[in-house]
Amino acid sequence: MQRDSLKAWRASSHFTGANAPYIEELYEAYLDDPGSVSEEWHSIFAELPTNGVEADVAHTKIRDYFRETALDSNRSKKTTVDPELSEKQVRVLQMINAYRFRGHQAAKLDPLGLWDREPVAELDPSHHGLTDEDLGREFNTGSYAYGGETMKLSDLVGSLAKTYCGHIGAEYMHITNTDEKRWIQQRLETVLAQPRYDAEHKQRILAGLNAAEGLEKYLGAKFPGAKRFSLEGGDAMIPMMRELIYRSGEQGAKEVVIGMAHRGRLNMLVNVLGKKPGDLFDEFAGKHDEALGSGDVKYHQGFSSDFATPGGNVHLALAFNPSHLEIVAPVVMGSVRARMDRRNCETGKLVMPITIHGDSAIAGQGVVQETLNMSQTRGFHVGGAIRVVINNQVGFTTSNPRDTRSTEYCTDIAKMLQAPVFHVNADDPEAVALVAQIAVDYRYEFGRDVFIDLICYRRHGHNEADEPNATQPLMYQKIKKHPTPRKIYADRLIEQGVMSSEEVTEQINTYREQLDHGDCVVPEWRTMSEHSVDWSPYLGHDWDADWEHKEPLEELKRLGREIAEVPPSHKLQSRVAKIYKDREAMAAGDKPLDWGMAETLAYATLLEKQYRVRITGQDSGRGTFFHRHAVLHNQDNATTYMPLRHLKEDQGPIEIHDSVLSEAAVLAFEYGYATAEPSGLTMWEAQFGDFANGAQVVIDQFLSSGEQKWGRLCGLTMLLPHGYEGQGPEHSSARLERFLQLCANHNMQVCIPTTPAQVYHMIRRQTLRPMRRPLVVMSPKSLLRHPLAVSDLEELAHGTYQNVIGEVDELDPKGVNRVVFCSGKVYFDLLDKRRREGLTNVALVRVEQLYPFPAEEMSKVLEDYQHVTDFVWCQEEPQNQGAWYCSQHHFWQAIPSGANLSYAGREASAAPAVGYPSVHNKQQQALVNAALNLN
After folding, report:
1. How confident is the model at residue 11, as a pLDDT?
2. Of 752, 770, 798, which one is at a domain's C-terminal end?
3. CATH, residue 700
4. In this model, does residue 772 exceed pLDDT 70?
5. Residue 390 above 50 pLDDT?
6. Do 428 and 357 belong together in one domain?
7. How many domains does the structure of the chain reveal?
8. What is the C-alpha separation between 638 and 748, in angstroms, rounded?
9. For a surface tag, which of 397, 412, 713, 879 has the fewest beta carbons within 10 Å of its beta carbon?
10. What is the largest CA-CA distance in the chain?
11. Rounded CA gap, 789 and 791, in Å?
12. Segment (H or E) for 316
């Protein structure tokens, strides 16, 4: 077709309303594969102007144009149109889309005006072939939400610039959901991204800025040089946080959980959560309670309070956070999920998370990606989170954005979730307030994450003793001359006649007087109500607290039958069917219990008593080693069935979720869950024990030390498969030595159960005992199906967890001249070898709890061996690993005076295990022989 013919053809009835859907489908097909449409249509679509805009950009607006055409009742009556005007109409729609896609790149986002950004050609009408003569013409505006169906081009360009190139830069066109994009367009375009607040609202915003600046200046004068990680430059965070909380209350939230690192934390504590300034000043002065453990620095502390909003009081919880920055984000999500579950809220509408990030940290810390990746999964979703970046354009100490990320924005990671990002100039607090309101509303409308990039600056160095001019001379020359956000906005309100200069000064003086008095400065602060978690039943208890609640034998048999029952219509895989057939026999007492059955029975007894059970891990439903099978997959239709959910109507809830392939974020999530839900069992299972290496920050900074630093109790259970099976360095050791190194002050338990009865009692003890501290379990692999690692129902009904298990064979204690201490799988290797060799002079003592060390129980077990002088600790791990270095002092104290303690195990090694099965077997045989004195 020639060009003139094309123009005439476009003007024909083929573009009338009835044909618009058909044309859209053809154009979709053309974009996917140009060869999929006829030559005639290929020529038409190829002639459509793109002017450098990506194909999908053009398609979006052309599609809108087709739809507008379809709605035009007069269009079908026309037989001819102006071809040039028709083509320019398409170009106008492309320009509108260009602003939506790239307007943020021309927005005035940097308060300091230092950004040097390339002009965006697509925002210039001339780039789209539109001339000065066209500025006075009326064009259809498609889906553009401002104005009417048509606008003069000059008015359209002006409104687009105000909406997308002002103090708010909106990135949302990467979202594929049309409803979400349309929703954002309606919120921004109808008001030109410029809110209209009344005088009272504006005064409230200024009060927030005044409080933010006032506290920092007060601290700077009262405690010069002290670290406080000042918020100055990012002062708008305080009124923004207040807007977020107000809006969440209006949306029905009952709780808001906040996670943030250092910068601005003290300001948040005082000016949002309502911590008394006097208490903060005492901390600066070095006053503290000696009985509160080790304590922590001021800018790691958490806080809780209630905050009055128009929709009712909202409970606020600021999570405690170490210096490991972003690791608090999944902790917050776990806390939120626990609060949702407690309120029976599946959507997240009653509990809202807010995480506050630094610009370098959000781009640099991998746990951010891990947390975002979990956000829409079944076991970890919380209904969306508000993620705020305090973007001071420096990052941490001396960084340059070019050195801290490879992306245009630090928030580009949001695009992996198709989450909208609202970049906003922190010197425009009204724009910040508008973005905060939109963010909350979006979260409640769509249940998804949303990002706010609060672009500001840092008035001082990384901390107040740092000198930023050394590395950012130009920026800090500009900052010294730049008025504060409070000053800019106060002058603006005075100019508008909203406040007088005297009223502004009075506001400043009133706040300072409040600081002088040291009492709460947050007018919305309220005494905490029943929203907070009740930890009182778990305080003040020691390890030996009474917890015994035995289940009768007949009750165990009944539960055993129920957890082995599967609907006939639910077809099981053959190996799984065999496991469940065996469980029926175990429940009847016809077969000894294996590990999976005893473990499942423990969960069933807790659920019967209405305790909540939550288990997560990469293979938790099935079990990494094919032993648990709590979640059964129908082989016909892939539906799932969980017998543990069908014990009785009023049982406790149970969640078993296969997690994402992450350790750090998932373990942090479960830690957060356990700190907000003390009454049930929260358990995380590693695929292999040493995979917990990837979550070491959670273990070091939260699990082992959270109680000492912050007084935070946590009853999380970690199952870490551990045992030397010849599978190589990365599948043998759960790094037992690292946990034992961290043990002090009775901060956690480290157990190595060796029988099904032991795991049954251990799980129940962790839940029923009125004490909440982490439980670290070196869980088995081969013992899951070991012929000697079995128990009977009587052991479950009448037994208890044994921290130490003495000799089980009928040896004459008087004939024993060597006692071997051991833990875990190696016990069965020793037992098997001793029996095969017919040895009667070596006794085997299992230590099933390495910490807290059971000195009293050990003393009782050793009463019959006070004549023995030869004691051995046997372990599978290399000498520099395992329990030998960390626990031998306990064994020295336990053995008789004058006796000797020696080591039997692998030699010291840099790697946890060898990679060759033949070498492994040789080493294993050697250490067993050494322990039994067979060398």
Report:
1. 44
2. 798
3. 3.40.50.12470
4. yes
5. yes
6. yes
7. 4
8. 40
9. 397
10. 113
11. 7
12. strand 312-318
DSSP state letters, 733-782: ---HHHHHHH--TT--EEE---SHHHHHHHHHHHHHSS----EEEEE-SG
Helix or strand holding residue 613 (H, E): strand 613-617
Q: CA 29 → CA 40, 42, 46, 175, distances in Å? A: 14, 10, 13, 20
Structure tokens at 83: 């071809």
Q: Give the strand pairing for 138-140 and 818-822.
A: unpaired
Beta bridge partners, 451, equal 387, 421
- Please tell me the distance from the alpha carbon of residue 717 to that of residue 110, in angstroms, as a whole number: 47
- Read off the pLDDT of residues 402-414 as tens digits, 9 standing for 90 and up: 788 889 999 999 9
Predicted structure pTM score:
0.89
Rounded to an integer, what distance in angstroms lies between the CA atom of residue 878 and that of residue 903? 11
* Cis peptide, bond prior to residue 852, ω within 30 of zero: yes
Whether 618 shows a pLDDT value over 70: the answer reads: yes
Residue 289 is part of a domain; what is its CATH number? 3.40.50.970
Strands 717-721 and 775-779, sheet pairing = parallel
For residue 97, give the H/E element and its range.
helix 83-102
Our measurement of the distance from residue 491's CA atom to the centroid of its chain's CA atoms, rounded to an integer in Å, reads: 41
pLDDT digits (tens, 9 = 90+) for 319-362: 988 877 799 999 999 999 999 999 999 999 999 999 999 998 99
pLDDT at 69 over 70: no
DSSP three-state, residue 317: strand
The pLDDT confidence band at residue 298, using thresholds 50, 70 and 90, is: low
Residue 815 vs residues 6, 82, 812, 841, 845: alpha-carbon distances, Å = 106, 111, 5, 6, 16
d(CA 92, CA 53): 12
Query: In Å, what is the CA distance from 63 to each residue of 47, 60, 390, 681?
Result: 15, 5, 38, 53
First to last CA, the chain: 95
Question: Structural domain of residue 338, as residue ranges?
Answer: 199-526
Is 613 inside a domain boundary? yes
Taking 3-state DSSP, the helix, strand and coil percentages for the chain, each rounded to the nearest 5, stand at: 45, 15, 40
Distance in angstroms (rounded) separating the CA atoms of residues 653 and 734: 30
| Interatomic CA distance for residues 722 and 688, integer angstroms | 7
Report if residue 192 sits inside a domain: no
Element (H or E) spanning 452, and its range?
strand 450-455
- State the pLDDT at residue 404: 83
For residue 23, give the H/E element and its range.
Answer: helix 20-32
The torsion angles phi and psi of 330, rounded to 5 degrees, stand at -70, -25
CA distance 112 to 402: 18
| Domain shared by 509 and 558, yes or no | no
Task: Please state, in angstroms and rounded to a whole number, the distance separating the CA atoms of residues 661 and 674.
Answer: 20
Please state which of the ranges 79-83, 536-540, 773-777, 915-919 shows the lowest mean pLDDT.
Answer: 79-83
Residue 743 in any domain: the answer is yes
SS3 220: helix
CATH number, domain at 815?
3.40.50.11610
- Domain boundary (798, 821, 841) is at 798
pLDDT of residue 541: 83
Q: Cα separation of 513 and 515, whole Å?
A: 5
Query: What CA–CA distances, in Å, run from 615 to 302, 565, 670, 707?
Result: 27, 21, 9, 23
